[in-house]
Design brief:
The structure is a single chain. This protein has one domain: Quinone Oxidoreductase, Chain A, domain 1. It starts with a strand and ends in an 8-residue tail after the last strand. The longest helix is centred in the middle third of the chain and has 8 residues. The chain is mainly beta. The strands form 2 sheets. It has a 5-stranded antiparallel β-sheet with strand order 6-3-4-5-7, with no helix packed on it. Strands 1-2 form a two-stranded antiparallel sheet. The chain contains 1 helix and 7 strands. About 5% of the residues lie in helices and about 35% in strands.
Length: about 130
Amino acid sequence: MFFVLAIGLTSYGPPDVLRPVEVDEPHAGPGQVRIRVQAAGVNPADVMLRDGSLADGYTDVEPPFVPGMDVAGTLDEVGPGLPDDFELQAGDDVVAVVDNHGRHGGYSSHAVVPAASVTAKLSGAGYP
């Protein structure tokens, strides 16, 4: 089993509860793609996860929790069963919205998202 490094939390609180954690390496399943994350935004929902405002929605999930709903990076794995009109391919620079419930947020080296949640990066838009 392989692991990836992520920034997550095992208890709720101020920003210093965020720590490096190891999580299982995600892979794209049917209708999904995987992104090698190069940048992640700080969305209000990420803050609410960290400070415990969303704790009621996480009672069925074992920590660590990995925030990160907004990512930019490079598409590096394509799962089977993508829509016929899906034109992106491995190596394309993309931006995406991540369903960050549990250990699958964008504050990670890789994130898996449904094909409908990813689009090509705008030409000329930069990120680290």
